[in-house]
Amino acid sequence: PGATAGVLIKALGIGAQPVQLCWLQFLPYCNPREKGFGVSVNFTNHACMDLGLVVDRKTGKRFMDEHAGRKIKSDALFKVIGTDENYPIAICDDAIVKAINPSFVKLPLEMGTVKKFDTLEQLADAFGIPKQALLDEVAKFNGYVKANDDKDFHRILTFNKGLDVSKAPFYGIEVSPKIHHTMGGVVINENAEVISANTHKPIPGLYAGGEVAGGVHGASRLGTVAVIDALTFGMIAGENFAKMQ
Length: 245
Hints:
This protein is of the alpha+beta class. The protein folds into two domains: 6-23 and 183-244, no CATH class; 26-179, Alpha-Beta Complex (Flavocytochrome C3, Chain A, domain 1). The chain has helices spanning 6-13, 41-49, 70-81, 94-99, 103-111, 120-127, 131-147, 225-244, and strands at 18-19, 24-30, 53-55, 89-93, 115-117, 170-174, 176-182, 185-186, 193-195, 202-207. Strand 9 (193-195) and strand 10 form a beta hairpin. Helix 6 packs across helix 7 (131-147).
C-alpha cells in the first residue's frame, strides 16, 4: 500500500508542483525470476558484487566495475541484457559466502534463484556461458585480486582482503536492475511545505518528506541517504504541523 503513489496522486490532484516524476533509481542487484523486488539482493550485492564478479553469459567476460555507483552499474547491465533478456551472471565462491553473512544465501538457495555448483565448469554449463572464456576470466580476476590492481575496470579490490573466486562450491545467480526509488515527487521547501503549481507558494497545511518529495537527491540518490531525507523532513514537517494546532 505504501508504494502505489496514492498520496502523491492526491497531492497532485490538489495542485502540488511536481518535479522529475520520470526519474527513477534502479538497484542493480535484483533477480529477474523473482516477483517484485525479491530477496536475493543482499546475496548478489554483498557476495558477488562486493567480493565476486559479474559476467556476460554470452561472452563469459566482465563488463563493468562491480563497485561502481548504482546508476553506472544499472546502465551497464541494461546494455548487456538488451532486448533478448541476456541476463548477466553474478558469481562468488564458498569462502566469500562464509566471509559475509551466510544467511544471505540461505533463502535464495531454497528458492532456486541462487544455484550452487562443485565446479566452475558446471556453473558455466548451467547458465550457458562459454566454458573456457569463463575459466580464463575468473583466473584473470583472481590475479587482479592478488595484485590488488584491476587493469580492466579499475575496481577497488582492497575490500576483498585477498578473497577471490577459487574455493568450491561456487555460486551463480542471474542479475537485473529493478526500480528501487522514485527520485521525483512534489516540490517542497526547507520547511517541508509542499509548493503549489499554481501560486508557487506553500499549500497551507500540506507537508511532505521522503520519497513522495522530489528534487532532493537529483538524478540518483546515494545509498542510505533516503532514510536521512525521510527522517529529517519528517521531523521538520511534524514540528511545523504541531505549531498549527
